[in-house]
Amino acid sequence: MLLGDVLRPRTVHRGVVTALALMLESAAIESANPVTVLADFHSDEFFTSEAAARFTAMAAVHPFVAVLGTTAAATIPGLRSAVPERSSDGPAEWSLVIIGTEQATALIVRELHRMPGHFEYALTHHRDLVAAAGRSLIARLLPDPEVTQYDVPRPESS
User: Residue 152, by phi and psi: left (phi above 0), alpha (psi -120 to 50) or beta?
Assistant: First the structure.
């Protein structure tokens, strides 16, 4: 879990998180360079028809696009998907990772049940953290019984 353990979260209304995700997804669609896109929607509720259209567009232009946590993604050509088992330990996190030769972005979000409609989120461009988040999502996409956890590097303080 990166949020809170490594990245300091900010609390915002759902609209802010949605706008951030839309901006990042649009940038991925428009990227002239190939990127890997990994997203964990955590449930079918969040994978809307609009999200399906955006991820269809990404899968059409990028070599590896994967969505976790929704059965609806399985029908999209070129999109890799899985619905991993969820642990009841700890809060549910939603993630969007976009990484390529010139870009590294991770948006990690979790709902605040004590404040309905509000979320904690962290946005990072730290390549090592983005790669760690990506490896975590890929491990849930294609679980390897030999790998139980990835080491998450902590950024050095400036």
Answer: beta
